[in-house]
């Protein structure tokens, strides 16, 4: 019996170790070898500074500072009911505070049910459909905000396809909603590569884009990732080998979307619709708060670009130009959206040891902020 148990545990550990390597690909190929160089020092060392991002007028990002109010909303909700939800963290542990963050507004936070009945649809990142059967997502964040009057869920896109292909799928989802005459405000949330997929939809389907009220970069690959340049299509197809994977194979051009040069070219050729409100939520983890399985890619991006990264994206490459920046979360790329640790204890021990994060409160705070912002703007635009 002991031998059988040991053999079974060995198989489980071996399976999860193999899956760890594949999952690293999901987060833009964290498993690729570190570049051989004379120095392992990061190109830009880690520090709690946000340069080149600036809230000063005329800055290239042209962003609005929403950090003070977002912190109030997040902390109020967290103090009220965060301890009753999974992966509780104090406000100061979850949200990074920089020296230039404005003081609190002092305005009360409404924790009641949604007035506008916002609909939030998330577009997942690279490879999500490949790991979805294994991940067995608990959907606790959507279930939590549903009790508050918000409807959320995922738009199914292809895990390793180009953003143009996935933009078509997003359009089909929005068109189905339009046929149902759903007039509730629609918020699209793009995680990682899901954000370029949303951008492709907005550019290619301007009529359907009129139905979108807001877009959120949630650790979104606005400007791509240097890791995409170090991978190839053959490695991308490794994801299809995950047990139970449902990877579609219409095309395998996700890496092209994520290359920084292609992202820069996209913005040079396209303009985001002006009627949509844009928001950015950035992952800016302390290096000690990055999971084992992501340490290699974190160091690699540091050598290539900047140590202030979440293991897949440098923090400033997650910011939508012209958006309202809501906050910086002390979480790595997986912790922001992929709840590995909640269902897979062995996987957590092997490669996702820093995966705990209060995603329920994070989603609630984002939706509450957007709703308050929309209501304030509607009141300001209302004719007396």
Q: What is the SS-derived class?
A: alpha/beta
**Radius of gyration over alpha carbons?**
20 Å
The CATH architecture would be 3-Layer(aba) Sandwich
Shape: globular
Total domain units: 1
What CATH first level would be assigned? Answer: Alpha Beta
Structure in a nutshell:
This protein has about 375 residues and is an alpha/beta fold.
Notable characteristics:
384 residues, alpha/beta, Rossmann fold, 7-stranded parallel beta sheet, disordered N terminus
Description of the molecule:
- Helix 12 links the parallel strand 6 and strand 7.
- The model is unreliable at 1-15 and 24-39 (pLDDT under 50).
- It is globular, with a radius of gyration of 20 Å.
- Strands 1-7-6-5-4-2-3 form a seven-stranded parallel beta sheet, with helices on both faces.
- By secondary structure, it is of the alpha/beta class.
- The N and C termini lie far apart (79 Å).
- The protein contains 16 helices and seven strands.
- The chain has one domain (2-32, 60-376): Rossmann fold, CATH 3.40.50.
- It has helices at 2-26, 67-81, 91-94, 128-135, 140-146, 163-179, 194-204, 206-209, 233-236, 254-258, 260-269, 295-304, 333-337, 340-343, 345-351, 359-381, and strands spanning 64-65, 119-123, 151-154, 186-192, 212-220, 277-283, 324-329.
- Helix 1 (2-26) crosses helix 15 and helix 2 packs across helix 16.
């Amino acid at each position: 019996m002991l031998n059988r148990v040991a053999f079974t545990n060995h198989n489980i550990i071996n399976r999860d170790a193999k899956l760890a390597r594949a999952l690293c690909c999901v987060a833009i190929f964290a498993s690729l070898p570190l570049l051989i160089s004379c120095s392992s020092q990061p190109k830009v060392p880690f520090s709690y500074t946000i340069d080149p991002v600036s809230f000063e007028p005329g800055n290239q990002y042209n962003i609005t500072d929403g950090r003070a109010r977002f912190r109030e909303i997040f902390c109020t909700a967290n103090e009220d009911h965060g301890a009753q939800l999974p992966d509780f963290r104090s406000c100061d542990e979850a949200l990074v505070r920089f020296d230039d963050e404005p003081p609190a507004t002092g305005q009360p936070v409404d924790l009641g049910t949604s007035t506008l009945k916002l609909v939030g649809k998330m577009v997942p990142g690279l490879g999500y459909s490949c790991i979805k059967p294994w991940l067995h997502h608990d959907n606790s964040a959507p279930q939590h905000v549903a009790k508050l009057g918000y409807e959320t869920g995922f738009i199914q896109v292809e895990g390793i396809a180009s953003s143009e292909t996935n933009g078509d799928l997003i359009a089909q989802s929005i068109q189905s909603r339009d046929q149902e005459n759903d007039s509730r405000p629609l918020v699209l949330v793009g995680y990682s590569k899901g954000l370029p997929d949303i951008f492709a939809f907005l550019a290619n389907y301007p009529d359907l884009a009129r139905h979108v009220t807001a877009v959120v970069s949630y650790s979104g690959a606005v400007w791509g990732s240097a890791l995409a340049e170090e991978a190839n299509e053959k490695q991308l197809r490794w994801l299809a080998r995950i047990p139970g994977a449902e990877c579609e194979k219409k095309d395998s051009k996700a890496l092209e979307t994520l290359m920084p040069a292609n992202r820069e070219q996209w913005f040079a050729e396209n303009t985001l619709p002006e009627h949509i409100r844009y928001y950015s939520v950035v992952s800016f983890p302390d290096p000690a708060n990055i999971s084992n399985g992501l340490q290699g890619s974190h160091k690699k991006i540091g050598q290539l670009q900047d140590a202030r990264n979440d293991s897949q994206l440098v923090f400033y490459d997650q910011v939508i130009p012209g958006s309202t920046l809501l906050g910086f979360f002390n979480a790595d790329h997986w912790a922001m959206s992929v709840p590995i640790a909640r269902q897979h204890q062995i996987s957590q021990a092997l490669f996702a040891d820093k995966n705990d994060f209060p995603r329920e409160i994070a989603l609630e705070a984002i939706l509450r902020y957007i709703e308050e912002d929309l209501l304030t703007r509607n009141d300001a635009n209302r004719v007396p």
